[in-house]
Amino acid sequence: MDLFSPLLDALPAVLTFPNLLAMVGGVLVGIVVGSLPGLTATMSIAVLLPLTFTMDPLVALGMMAGIYNGAMYGGAIPAILLRIPGTPAAIVTTFDGYPLAQQGRAGYALQIALLSSAFGGMMSAIAMMVLAPPLSLVTLAFGPPEVFWVGIFGMAAVAVFLGEDLPKGLLSALIGLFIGMIGLDPVMSTDRFTFGQLELESGIDIVVLMVGLYAIPPCLEMAEDTARAVGARIRLDFQPFLKTIREIPRYFRIWSWAYFYGIFVGLLPGASGSFVSFLAYERAKRMSKDPESFGKGNPEGIAASEFGNNADNAAALIPTVTLGIPGSSVAAVIMGGLLVHGLQPGPDLFRNSADIIYGFMIQMFLTSLILIPLGGSFATNLFAQVLRIPRPLLIPLIICLSIVGAYCVQNSLFDVWLMFGFGLLGYVMSKTGLPLAPVALGVILGPLIESNLRLSLLLDVRNEHILFTRPICMVLIALLVLTTVLPPVWKHIRARRARAA
Amino acid sequence: MKRITASLAAIGLLAGTAALADYPEKPITIVVPYGAGGGSDIMVRTVAPYIEKYLGDGASIVVENRTGASGIIGWQAVHDARPDGYTIGVITTPSIVTKPIEGKAEFTWQDFTIIANMVTDPAALNVKKGSQFKDIAGLVDYAKENPKVVTMATGNFGGDDHLAGLQLEKLTGAEFTFVPFPGVAARNATMGGHVAVGSFNLGEAVNYQDSIDILGIMADKRSDLAPEVPTLKEQGFDVVASSQRGFAGPKGMPDEAVEKLSAAIAQAVNDPDFRKDAQNQGVVLDFADSADFTAQLDAFDKAMRKIWAESPWLE
């Protein structure tokens, strides 16, 4: 398939003024929101999404792309300056970022984070441009049995990547699966858990759920520590930007590994940027001649972490736009945005709305590119001051936007109450240490798995066990076994060897 | 006293008539009971400027999406609105007729003022290009010899695609296995070869003929949208099924408003620019005024009640 001509066709629309404005605005909003601890990319896109309902779809997507890429870098600012990760994906950035800041090299650390984020995002967008269109053609070969296994794969990935907090993560996923069951059942249209409420018949809207889960808890938490002192004016000492740019070749090897992990993990439904950062950081440490310096202010640690969490961005959108299975919680919200604009993921998206989807991929690239000037020395200096805004001031703003957002999805006041209900649920969950992402994935993957399982059983008219005998199914099952069964077994064997030795 | 009341009433009457002569004096809200970006929504948003044009006098239309419960939430809102001609809604068959039969709605289609029909999208049976089935007779014969082996992708059970398949079963004695795919997934499943045949409307099939063959449409005559596609009737199977999209308001709407709206919709449907838009979107235009549309709904209602009484399509 010709790769470049649809991209070129989509380019003029991307370069129109409202579009550029939306991208620049999105990146700025993203950096600000990302730099505010507790406010994530998922939250800001979910809250701002309804403002885009009346926009041209491409303009709306440009803004979302900007917020997404901006927030992933913004998270590094407090991570480096205050050792508070602005977004979960920036946790690893604190390891070496904060020590560097303590050595008075905060400016340099931010420059490395910026360049790594920007290149990570651009490379990820290129991967999406290359992989998504051919995959979208292949998806026609994905019938109910294949989609069922992809869904199972996603749920398994949720479990595997939760690591230490397995029971809590599974509990979260179960909450999500339950919420996903509300509404009419996918085959016989029987009411489930609707209590006769017509509003619940079509199920819970993913945007309403995400706004509630991700926007309300941080508000309540910010209200709890209003008394916390506001930081003093922060000074950053930058070295000339060009000098930092000249250092880039030094990071190529680390970036390549981070890229590989980013794309691979991005493609898996359920795993997210924070996980990529960990993988890339561990790899950088093992490759280094001086692993001891990691955690004490080695810029290579920042490069690995920040490149990794941005390399996941566009990659996570690949299964979203081709199969309708979001690769991360941000991707889940963006999928909600696509659906609101009548853009159904799958081959039709590439066939009927080529300008929009190719335009969106260009936007994912461009918003990473404009991170460099926007996030450059001057702006980063400015954003560092954002941390001094008394955070409680944000509470009324976020709550207003959340109410508007939840209402706008279906013009329904019922959804506003539902949103507050999910807000309380999210608050209780974050207080008890239950992760939020598995809920969103449970809500999306649960119904997908159920309906495709039931459709597969209906389709199996000749008793051929199509769930197990179709070739793509067999490949997916093999992958599933490899990723879920092997790691624990391998770990067990290594542990035994270690004991024996 | 009596005289004053009488003259007040007369003034009121005059004012009332005067107001309606100028209809519309304020924006008209059209409630779309489905999500923004869906088929019904796009249809209304495309036709709205043309209806505004033919209503004249700077008339304006606001499209409001009230989604949920397969249309029932939006229709309830129209049902409960003031019948002043300023809130109307899109009604779609079969749901507006079948949901009340299923006992899922508190109203029936007779509780509305029927304004006009705009779209009649015939049901169609479609196969992947290169399928073993070349015509309806071949499909039916195979399904008769191999009961339940032919899989047929439909939309939700109880929707028009499913009802169309059931009618064909009833007529011929063939037995299909219906598989309910949501939304456009039925077409994708057909194109991907995951089902033997897909039951979805002509409008959803017509722009995809590079990957699917349309075996036939369930209409009285061939469609302007795809004149080369034969009807089932021509092939010897007397089955007619379609999905209609029209407009209705709350019961008791003033006649003047209904007439003006109906006339404007009729003119819009004949507008060459709009016809071109419709063709590109796969919208099968078919205007019917209030009386004709009411008669069509009535006939469909009777047929559906008969099927429901004999063998309900939902358990």
UniProtKB/TrEMBL annotation, chain A:
What keyword terms does UniProt attach to this protein?
Answer: Membrane, Transmembrane, Transmembrane helix
InterPro entries found in the cross-reference section = DUF112_TM
Q: Decide whether keyword Transmembrane is in the record.
A: yes
Show where the DUF112 domain sits: 20-439
Ranges annotated as spanning the membrane:
20-39, 46-68, 80-100, 112-135, 147-163, 170-188, 258-281, 356-374, 394-420, 469-490
**Database matches in PANTHER family:** TRICARBOXYLIC TRANSPORT PROTEIN (PTHR35342)
Provide the protein name: Putative tricarboxylic transport membrane protein
Automatic annotation (TrEMBL), chain B:
Q: Does the keyword Signal apply?
A: yes
Q: Does the keyword Lyase apply?
A: no
Return the Pfam families for the record. Answer: TctC
Q: Which domain of life is it from?
A: Bacteria
Where does the signal peptide begin and end? Answer: 1-21
Give the record's keywords alphabetically. Answer: Receptor, Signal
Family affiliation: Belongs to the UPF0065 (bug) family.
Q: Which PANTHER family match?
A: BLR1237 PROTEIN (PTHR42928:SF5), TRICARBOXYLATE-BINDING PROTEIN (PTHR42928)
Protein name (Swiss-Prot/TrEMBL): Tripartite-type tricarboxylate transporter receptor subunit TctC
Organism, by scientific name, is Rhodovulum kholense
Q: What is the lineage of its organism?
A: Bacteria, Pseudomonadati, Pseudomonadota, Alphaproteobacteria, Rhodobacterales
